[in-house]
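thread from #wetlab-drylab

HS: before we spend reagent money on co-crystallization trials with flavin-adenine dinucleotide, can we at least see a predicted complex? here's what I'd submit
DV: go for it
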Amino acid sequence: MDFIDLNNLFPIKTSDFKDDEVFDIAVIGGGIVGTAIFKEFCEQGAKTVLVEKDNDILEGASKGNSAILHIGFDAPPETLELECVKRGYAEYLKIREDLKLPILKTTAMVVAWNDEQLDKLDSILQKGLGNGVAELDIITAQQVLKKEPNLSASA
Ligand SMILES: Cc1cc2nc3c(=O)[nH]c(=O)nc-3n(C[C@H](O)[C@H](O)[C@H](O)COP(=O)(O)OP(=O)(O)OC[C@H]3O[C@@H](n4cnc5c(N)ncnc54)[C@H](O)[C@@H]3O)c2cc1C
């Protein structure tokens, strides 16, 4: 990977650039989005440089998130966001074996903490089903606490 630090514009990894080196494409920002775009352009044969202002890639939100591989249950229907979430999910499953990326198959829970949130659960369920996510259900507070005993009893 070609990777330069914007602060001093000296190459800090892999190859030494010449001052007059020309690239087809510069991708700015080495988060998950930038690195994915970088990978795609490299695979298509473009001479691509990834420019990152920090000392390493993936130091921002992409490093400190909850690591849930989203399936799109709560994305706005018929949007680019939903399309990207679904394609990203499929792509991760496809490339993870080649790249030896880990995955822990589990479930996710959206927990209502009060009556107002409880009232919204059915519309979240309907949205998810409408988005093509079939394995969704509403479970009782007792079932939630059985699955996650360390959650607050107000779930
Ligand atoms: C607390 C939290 C939990 C989350 N949990 C999840 C989750 O479970 N699942 C999920 O799918 N998503 C989750 N997200 C969202 C997800 O982390 C982000 O959508 C994603 O990481 C954004 O990636 P990015 O590449 O756009 O941004 P970033 O990861 O922020 O990358 C941007 C990069 O650009 C660099 N940069 C910025 N400006 C410049 C510049 N001028 N020049 C050069 N480099 C620059 C930054 O240093 C950084 O490295 C969560 C987010 C947060 C905050």
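DV: Confidence is low (pLDDT under 50) at residues 1-14.
HS: ok that's useful, forwarding to the group
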